[in-house]
Design brief:
- There is one protein chain.
- By secondary structure, this protein is of the alpha+beta class.
- The chain has 15 helices and 8 strands.
- The strands form 2 sheets. Strands 1-2-3-5-4 form a 5-stranded antiparallel β-sheet.
- Helix 3 runs antiparallel to helix 6, helix 5 (about 115-135) crosses helix 13 and helix 8 packs antiparallel against helix 11.
- The chain is globular and about 55 Å long.
- The chain binds the ligand NC(=O)c1ccc2nc(-c3ccc(Oc4cccc(O)c4)cc3)[nH]c2c1.
- The ligand NC(=O)c1ccc2nc(-c3ccc(Oc4cccc(O)c4)cc3)[nH]c2c1 binds next to strand 1, strand 2, strand 3 and strand 6.
- Ligand RU9 binds near residues 25, 96 and 149.
């Protein structure tokens, strides 16, 4: 493995501080390995990004370095945190906090479909994370179950969005790369307005709609086995089917949320801010759980009565910072 077969390819500082072991994830730009901090034996995830994949994108490498530095300052409970950063001539090594529950993708795959209450808790956290990214001028552009990590194998757990630095860095090139990956989660305008790169924040709302559809039903809304259109044509037409057997026990409010996100025209599509105000999420028990997971210190010293819970996203908006910014 990386540790044994080519020691020279590891930055000295990384090798001294961490023991890299097995691969725990693999993506378009590289792989993710399990690492142990030598001094504490704490687990970390080290994302190895091969620069040679970007050589052809010219400034992409410089952008990648700049973007990774910017993202090291991004701070939200539902965004994965960068612990360390190293590089060699041909690779970047980003040391990230370990999310013991692994990828949401594997949980949905093993459970077929999530309980609606679990899907709601996860989706609310994703909305908070993406709302925060957008307020920092970052569009994710690649939201999919592989990029949503779970803090534990328990249903009620913190989730974190990851990989938000890749697509933002590569701009046009991301589009080329994105188009050679699975298009299942891509919004219609990525195909139809590609050359303008003008597609905006609304692409993330679409992808979150696809993510919610998959969490609730266990299958993708746009798939090559459905109908006689290609996946991209199904997406551009906004044609998806809610198979009764899969959706019969799911609430009308959840279905309404999905339908308002999977709208082809980005101008008509529900925004992240509107989604946060959707009736399906005005669930005090879920909001209290989410706040406890996202801001555990607050809950400890300021147990807000459930009825008085200010949804975490509204606190962020109102710049409510008393307990957190110590
Ligand atoms: N694409 C990314 O930017 C990225 C960034 C960070 C990531 N961490 C994982 C990951 C973490 C834990 C996993 O289960 C394990 C694996 C080993 C031990 C363990 O306790 C849990 C599986 C995948 N996947 C990641 C992807």
């Amino acid at each position: 493995d990386l540790q044994s077969d080519n020691q020279s390819s590891l930055p000295k500082g990384l090798q001294e501080k961490y023991l890299l072991t097995r691969q725990i994830g693999v993506g378009v730009c590289g792989e993710v390995r399990l690492a142990f901090e030598r001094s504490t034996c704490n687990k970390f995830a080290v994302k190895v990004i091969n620069k040679k994949n970007f050589q052809s994108e010219g400034t992409a490498t410089r952008n990648a370095e700049t973007e990774i530095k910017i993202l090291q300052r991004i701070d939200h409970p539902c965004l994965i945190k960068t612990q360390d950063f190293y590089q060699t001539e041909d690779s970047y090594f980003i040391v990230l906090e370990m999310m013991e529950g692994g990828e949401l993708f594997n949980k949905v795959k093993s459970q077929q479909q999530l309980k609606e209450s679990v899907a709601k808790l996860y989706f609310y956290q994703m909305l908070c994370a993406v709302h925060y990214l957008h307020s920092n001028g970052i569009i994710h552009r690649d939201l999919k179950p592989e990029n949503i990590l779970l803090s534990s194998s328990e249903d009620v757990c913190l989730i974190k969005v990851t990989d938000f630095n890749q697509s933002r860095i590569l701009e046009e090139a991301a589009l080329m790369r994105t188009l050679c990956g699975t298009p299942s989660y891509l919004a219609p305008e990525v195909f139809t307005h590609a050359n303008t790169t003008g597609y905006g924040l609304a692409v993330d709302a679409w992808s979150l709609g696809v993510l919610l559809f998959v969490c609730l039903s266990g299958y993708a809304p746009f798939h090559e086995n459905f109908g006689n259109y290609s996946v991209s044509e199904q997406i551009i037409r906004g044609e998806f089917t809610m198979i009764p057997k899969k959706w019969e026990h799911i609430s009308n409010q959840a279905k309404d949320m999905v339908r308002k996100l999977l709208v082809v025209d980005p101008k008509e599509r529900m925004s992240i801010a509107e989604a946060l105000q959707h009736p399906w999420l005005q669930d005090q028990e879920m909001l209290a759980t989410a706040q406890r997971l996202m801001y555990p210190n607050d809950a400890a010293c300021h147990p807000a009565p459930v009825a008085m819970v200010t949804p975490a996203h509204q606190e962020a908006e109102s710049g409510y910072t008393t307990h957190r910014k110590r």
